[in-house]
């Protein structure tokens, strides 16, 4: 690094202003379908400083103010304070978690400062943004020494405008990434997955003309037959300005007047071939507004329930699924490439799935798009998991923000059929109110999908298991997680379980399963053997056959994944072993058992 750059980096590290632990959430900027815009990727190696003591903020003379700005943030020569700069040996790959990139960072929770230099040739009349597809858990972003803002939540995208800050040469982008678990966070401190820290998804510069398309939604009308409907929003619209929509394959080419908010709504008679797992048809859709135009691939379908059945395009469908964590096959750590998404999805297809549960947080945009392209229906979820602080308003705001960001990003994906708002959340008044509010919000944001949540159940009289949770009244589809043969009961007894569902709604068994170390064999009574896991699958599949309100199933889980709760030596070694496939990509016996169940049905 040359001297000037070094000084600048040093300066920004010492003077970086930021909000410190305030309960404030910043309203984010948003652009639909960022990847289809003019982008420059900032992926690759970034220089980093690991900062467990928060030296970037604290030093022997100055404490940060509550708003995060140093008392003396106008300091001209900070060099007498601390001697940190970005001229370090440590570099990390973006996108990527830090835990699997450096042994020293395997268990690390705290702050890492990332820095990336770049040149950029801004075009006349364009607006420029820096876009992050995912940073776990909190990100504070600075460009050329200026604080752009912060984002909370590890699995949704965010961006900042940099039009007036970015320059042709020697830009330096600094991100303070902090993956410290927080009691009041979403998720909270306790989970069954690894708290991978870092800039785990791509970073890119996005440029759009001043007058541009911000957001849109195009879908099949739920109410009028043979109608495509939706809306489009532009950055700013003058009187009589119009936006154009084309769907060439449907011979649609129409323009619409924009209102004073820059929004146009539309309804068009059309007869598209409908998207389904057996025919995952998507149409090229294009919006044009002045010099801006954007293309998307959009499928049209209808998902609804009737009584205890799930209907896709008016026909009953059984969701043959599998749960998936966003963990990379073979190399472990977070998924970072399209190839890794496709490997996971191909395994799901090989199992005979038409459905996947993307647990327990929003997966990447790429994963969702590939799933849709391959004809997999998707359950997409926010990490409202176990014992979050249901009585904390800030926690609710975070949950609602993540829900909003998930729906905003993926609202045009026909493949997504279910939004899940919670997983195994113990019933209480506060929790019920919290989740009712979230469900209401989800419906306000999007009425084209079903709302679900994975609920706990309990045992009732004569060994009947009962679904009894006030949330059953609220959701459209009830998810239940049940580990018969693993956390409770003998494997053999699972087949005889009877269920009571008095909600008259479809149920998805969103989890069942058992741990097995791939390659470890024994008899079917020996825990951790492939045979034991297989027996659990066999008996649970028998149980499913007795559930006449069953709308689908997504056993736990496609591949072994890292978890801080799984310490058994020789067997777990920090992995939850309930995968049907090992993290090295080897299939266990139960894979074939589930496959044969799906192939028969
Ligand atoms: C569950 C959780 C899931 C865990 C799984 C297990 O009920 O929803 O996150 O990983 O059980 O393996 O215990």
UniProtKB/TrEMBL annotation:
- Molecular function per GO: beta-glucuronidase activity; carbohydrate binding
Keywords in alphabetical order: Glycosidase, Hydrolase, Signal
Domain Glycoside hydrolase family 2 immunoglobulin-like beta-sandwich spans what residues?
212-301
Glycoside hydrolase family 2 catalytic domain residues are: 304-599
Which GO BP annotation is one of this protein's? Answer: glucuronoside catabolic process
User: Where on the tree of life does the source sit, at the highest rank?
Assistant: Bacteria
- A Pfam family that this protein carries is Glyco_hydro_2
Q: Domain named Glycosyl hydrolases family 2 sugar binding: which ranges?
A: 40-209
Say yes or no: keyword Hydrolase present: yes
Answer yes or no on keyword rRNA processing: no
Q: Which residues form the signal peptide?
A: 1-23
Q: What is its EC number?
A: 3.2.1.31
Q: Which family does it belong to?
A: Belongs to the glycosyl hydrolase 2 family.
Cited PANTHER family:
BETA-GLUCURONIDASE
Write down what this protein is called: Beta-glucuronidase
């Amino acid at each position: 690094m040359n001297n000037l750059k070094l000084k600048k980096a040093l300066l920004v590290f010492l003077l970086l202003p930021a909000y410190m632990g305030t309960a404030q959430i910043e309203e984010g900027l948003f652009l639909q379908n960022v990847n289809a815009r003019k982008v420059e990727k900032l992926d690759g190696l970034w220089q980093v400083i690991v900062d467990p003591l928060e030296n970037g903020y604290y030093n022997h003379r100055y404490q940060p103010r509550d708003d995060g700005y140093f008392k003396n943030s106008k300091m001209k020569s900070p060099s007498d304070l601390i001697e940190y700069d970005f001229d370090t040996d440590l570099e990390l790959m973006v996108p990527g978690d830090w835990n699997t990139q450096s042994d020293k960072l395997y268990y690390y929770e705290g702050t890492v400062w990332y820095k990336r230099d770049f040149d950029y040739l801004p075009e006349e009349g364009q607006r420029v943004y820096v876009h992050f597809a995912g940073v776990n858990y909190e990100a504070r972003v600075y460009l050329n020494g200026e604080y752009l803002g912060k984002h909370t939540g590890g699995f949704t995208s965010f961006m900042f405008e940099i039009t007036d800050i970015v320059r042709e040469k020697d830009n330096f982008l600094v991100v303070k990434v902090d993956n410290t678990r927080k009691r009041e966070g979403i998720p909270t401190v306790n989970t069954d997955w690894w708290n991978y820290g870092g800039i785990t998804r791509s970073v890119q510069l996005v440029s759009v003309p001043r007058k541009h398309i911000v957001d849109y939604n195009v879908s099949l009308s739920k109410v009028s037959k043979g109608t495509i409907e939706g809306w489009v929003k532009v950055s700013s619209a003058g009187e009589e300005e119009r936006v154009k929509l084309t769907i060439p394959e449907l011979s649609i080419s129409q323009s619409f007047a924009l209102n004073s908010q820059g929004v146009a709504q539309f309804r068009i008679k059309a007869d598209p071939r409908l998207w389904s797992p057996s025919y995952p048809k998507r149409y090229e859709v294009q919006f044009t507004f002045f010099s801006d135009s954007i293309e998307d691939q959009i499928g049209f379908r209808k998902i609804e329930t009737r009584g205890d059945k799930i209907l896709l395009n008016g026909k009953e469908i059984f969701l043959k699924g599998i749960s998936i964590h966003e963990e990379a096959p073979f190399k472990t750590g977070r998924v970072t490439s399209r190839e890794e998404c496709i490997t996971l999805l191909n395994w799901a297809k090989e199992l005979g799935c038409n459905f996947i549960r993307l647990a327990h947080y929003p997966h990447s945009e790429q994963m969702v798009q590939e799933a849709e392209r391959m004809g997999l229906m998707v359950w997409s979820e926010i990490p409202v998991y176990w014992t979050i602080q249901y009585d904390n308003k800030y926690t609710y705001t975070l949950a609602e923000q993540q829900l909003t960001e998930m729906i905003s990003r993926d609202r045009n994906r026909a493949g997504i059929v279910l939004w899940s708002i919670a997983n195994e959340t113990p019933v209480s008044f506060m929790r019920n109110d919290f989740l009712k509010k979230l469900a209401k919000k989800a419906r306000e944001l999007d009425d084209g999908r079903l709302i679900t949540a994975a609920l706990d159940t309990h045992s009732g009289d004569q060994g009947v298991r009962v679904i009894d949770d006030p949330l059953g009244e609220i959701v459209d589809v009830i998810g239940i997680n049940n580990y018969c043969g693993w956390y409770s009961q003998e494997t053999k007894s699972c087949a005889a379980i009877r269920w009571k569902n008095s909600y008259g709604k479809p149920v998805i068994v969103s989890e069942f399963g058992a741990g097995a170390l791939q390659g470890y064999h024994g008899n079917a009574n020996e825990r951790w053997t492939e045979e034991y896991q297989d027996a659990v699958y066999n008996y649970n599949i028998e149980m499913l056959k007795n559930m006449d309100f069953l709308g689908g199933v997504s056993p736990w889980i496609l591949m072994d994944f890292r978890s801080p709760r799984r310490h058994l030596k020789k067997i777990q070694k920090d992995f939850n072993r309930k995968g049907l496939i090992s993290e090295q990509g080897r299939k266990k016996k139960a894979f074939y058992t589930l496959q044969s169940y799906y192939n028969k049905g």
